[in-house]
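Still learning folds. Look over my entry:

…
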Amino acid sequence: MPTVTGLVERRGRAKVFVDGEFWAVLDAAVAFDLGLAEGVELSDEGLREARVAGERPLAMTRALNVLGYRARAEGELRTRLERAGYADATVGAVLERLRELGYLDDGEFARNAAHEKSRKYGPRRILVDLKKSGVDEEVAREAVEEEFSGDDEIEAASAAAQRRYNTGERSDALARRVYGFLARRGYSAGVCAEVARRYREGGDGE
């Protein structure tokens, strides 16, 4: 059976070695409560359970610290915890608890992000950004569609262009710059072309 061959405690954490190799970093108090000590033998199942129990307080603290800076999508937070070295079962348990507590809600996250970004970016760009943040595509698409459902995309794009190019100039060169500016912000080709035309010829929405 796997055997604990070392346990080094420091600042409330216990670095545990099993069969001569580093195994995991656990909350020191939990490790003590579990009776982990050099020479203790545990089954594979016992090791898995001990790891989740010992990692969970540390992973929860890390997750709350990350969420303290700004809201995160569940996928992004999962990636952060996995990169920190926590076991899949530990990460799953922490995310489940955060959902129960109301700290994780991808639907709300996506709606808030779409609303914040809608003043600067178009729907396609916002959809890409949400998916990069780890939001499920269907959830992201619903949030974007909801945000833009009552808006005229052309007018939103025109307003964005006016904030950037409020010069009164009309020229082919400016129209090309406007088209590129809006395209980079995720507006559709048709919308970019229509707003660019206004900067070339003048017209409604000047």
User: Anything to note?
Assistant: The mean pLDDT is 89. The longest helix spans residues 44-69.
